[in-house]
Q: What sequence folds into this?
């Protein structure tokens, strides 16, 4: 009997040092049992015994069915009989999953018990009886790999001179196979995500957000999305995933980073201060102003408040008519000796000059006073200044801003051919 106890201990040590597995199923089809057995002999010389080992090995087939083999050794109390059994069995689990799993089993095998046998072998032909087996048992799950086991079976020996036996087994069952580390019903061999419980339709991977895309293929595993977006949401439906969309709630274009551009000026509405009017990026999406309406934008207009021409930087073109006027002999006002009175002809000239200055509002003029050589030089300087001041006052009275005029006195320094024509006022273009 010692050798069987040693065998039982060795098998137990191997089981306890094995890798972790789950309950017996398609992924963990193998189960090995080890325990002790109690036998009652059903004849006139009734006897019983308790012994070890009781060993079993079963393999899951499908549904709730398994097949296997079992072996037991014992000795009958009060006799020198050694008792051995070996059977092939079919096992049916009454429930498939749960903490407690009852089962039924049936099989066919050999039983042997005899005194002082000199026959060799554990099951010599003269002393072994063919036996049918039927019984019931229960497995109580202790962990994913271990279960406590209790079974009772009736063994009916069919040979002459043999007896029936009632056998009870108590022990432990260890289940193993390909493994299912995360317990999701998908074997580790087939499980793409073996460390995370998942779904069979996704080969063992989870679908956390429930969008029909497994987490291992989902770029946004915690946000429900679409396959087109690799599992990410696209709230505005513009074909750009929310995570990449600068405007996730307003449909836009890829060029605009997912934002709309209502006026089509390539400035996204969110950055466009004039979203409904096409403008320029350099002006925050708004059009550049043209204050003077001359077609030259203020940013390029050297004279933004006065209508001009592009060729002249947005300023007025050369004041040709004014230049021609002040360059002609008709632009001179003549005075009498020691006089500062412009006279009627002078008033008419002032009016003509005023019209030209209105036409060229950005042009300034210089009013130059002159005198003949009558009198002293200092006197002539003074009177030439007065003549220039008088004409300037007449232009101001006509409506020309004084800031557009500068006066200069030359006295008798620039005489003309005679004294009469030397007493005059002339005009020149000033500095703007």
A:
């Amino acid at each position: 009997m010692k050798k069987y106890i040693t065998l039982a201990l060795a098998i137990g040590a191997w089981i306890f040092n094995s890798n972790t597995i789950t309950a017996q199923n398609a992924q963990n089809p193998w189960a090995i049992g080890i325990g002790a057995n109690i036998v009652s002999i059903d004849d006139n010389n009734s006897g019983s015994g308790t012994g070890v080992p009781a060993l079993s090995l079963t393999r899951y087939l499908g549904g709730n069915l398994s097949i296997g083999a079992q072996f037991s050794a014992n000795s009958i109390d009060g006799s020198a009989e050694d008792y051995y059994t070996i059977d092939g069995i079919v096992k049916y689990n009454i429930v498939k999953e749960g903490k407690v799993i009852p089962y039924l089993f049936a099989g066919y095998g050999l039983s042997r018990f005899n005194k002082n046998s000199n026959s060799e072998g554990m099951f010599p032909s003269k002393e072994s009886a063919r036996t049918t087996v039927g019984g019931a048992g229960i497995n109580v799950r202790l962990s994913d790999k271990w279960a406590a086991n209790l079974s009772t079976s009736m063994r009916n020996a069919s040979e002459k001179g043999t007896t029936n036996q009632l056998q009870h087994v108590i022990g432990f069952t260890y289940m193993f196979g390909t493994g299912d580390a995360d317990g999701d019903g998908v074997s580790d061999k087939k499980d793409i995500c073996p460390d995370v419980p998942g779904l069979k339709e996704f080969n063992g991977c989870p679908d956390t957000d429930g969008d029909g895309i497994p987490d291992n293929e989902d770029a946004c595993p915690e946000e429900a999305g679409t396959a087109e977006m690799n599992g990410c949401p696209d709230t505005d439906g513009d074909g750009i995933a929310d995570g990449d969309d600068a405007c996730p709630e307003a449909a836009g274009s890829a060029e605009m980073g997912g934002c709309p551009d209502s006026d089509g000026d390539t400035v996204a509405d969110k950055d466009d201060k004039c979203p409904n009017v096409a403008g320029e990026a350099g002006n925050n999406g708004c059009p550049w102003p043209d204050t003077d309406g001359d077609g030259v934008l203020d940013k390029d207009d050297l004279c933004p408040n006065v209508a001009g021409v592009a060729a002249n930087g947005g300023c007025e073109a050369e004041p040709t008519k004014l230049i021609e006027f002040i360059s002609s002999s008709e632009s001179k006002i003549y005075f009498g000796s020691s006089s500062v009175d412009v006279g009627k002809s002078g008033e008419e000239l002032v009016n003509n000059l005023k019209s030209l200055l209105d036409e060229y509002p950005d042009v300034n003029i210089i009013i130059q006073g002159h005198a003949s050589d009558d009198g002293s030089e200092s006197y002539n300087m003074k009177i030439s200044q007065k003549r220039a001041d008088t004409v300037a006052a007449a232009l101001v009275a006509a409506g020309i801003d004084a800031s557009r005029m500068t006066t200069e006195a030359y006295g008798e320094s620039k005489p003309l051919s005679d004294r009469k024509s030397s007493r005059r006022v002339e005009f020149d273009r000033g500095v703007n």
